[in-house]
Amino acid sequence: MIEKIAIVADIHANKYALCKFLKYIDNEDIKCILNIGDFVQIGPNPYEVSFKVLNDIRFVNILGNNETSLFEIDETNPNDEIAHRLWTRKQMKENFEKIKLMSKTKIIIKNNVKILMIHSRKNDIKGMPLIYTDGIDSFVKDYEDFGTDIVLFGHTHEKLYIEHNGKILINPGSLGCSKNGTIDFVILKIDNNQNVKCDFESLEYDKTELIRDYYNNNVPDKEFLLKTFFKYNDNKNISANE
Known about the structure:
By secondary structure, the chain is an alpha/beta fold. It has helices at residues 15-28, 46-55, 65-68, 80-92, 95-99, 136-142, 208-216, 222-230; strands at 3-8, 33-35, 59-61, 106-110, 113-117, 150-152, 159-164, 167-172, 183-190, 196-203. It contains 8 helices and 10 strands. The strands form 2 sheets. Strands 3-2-1-9-10 form a 5-stranded mixed β-sheet. Strands 4-5-6-8-7 form a 5-stranded mixed β-sheet, with helices on one face. A hairpin with a 5-residue loop joins β9 and β10 (196-203). α2 crosses α4 (80-92). It is globular, with a radius of gyration of 18 Å. The relative contact order is 0.18.
């Protein structure tokens, strides 16, 4: 039997990208979704997205740096980033306490293939996972102790597939705010002989409602976030009430 697994990272509170992805997954009849963290913050819908990934039994979740940054906030040093974190934590309601119980890493096994889920490098969850002075060898060495066949990671929003020293390294790209404005994810297929096939998928979607939610929900730092992650300039004048 072939195990079909969806891999997602960096949903970033974008419920519209998540909903379109889930429709695709429903049609493909995929029963397992590995979520590699950073599913809250940046986007305007932290409650809806966190509720879905916490309550849909298909999801296997880990924390990213956007989640862990919510646990300890220095309110004595107010700035736009702190304001956004406080807003996100408030919006999440009961889901905030639930994510505090989640792990930063997880190992799952499919057809005897051992898969490690991380968000970024083991020793620094906020670090960029492939920036090492010693290159890819140093990256692989960081995860030798886990004894896994596949390492899944996110954080950079960049798609990546590398086979190196007997390991497969995969970054699916960002589901919620990719640099190309698409919904990016991976479908992984593993057969009974431990053969692995990795398909990168991208979906298009209309961002009008997403942009409107930034204004309707009064998301702190929305102008910077829209410009940086969605290349949206507010002089295009999509108003909240249109």
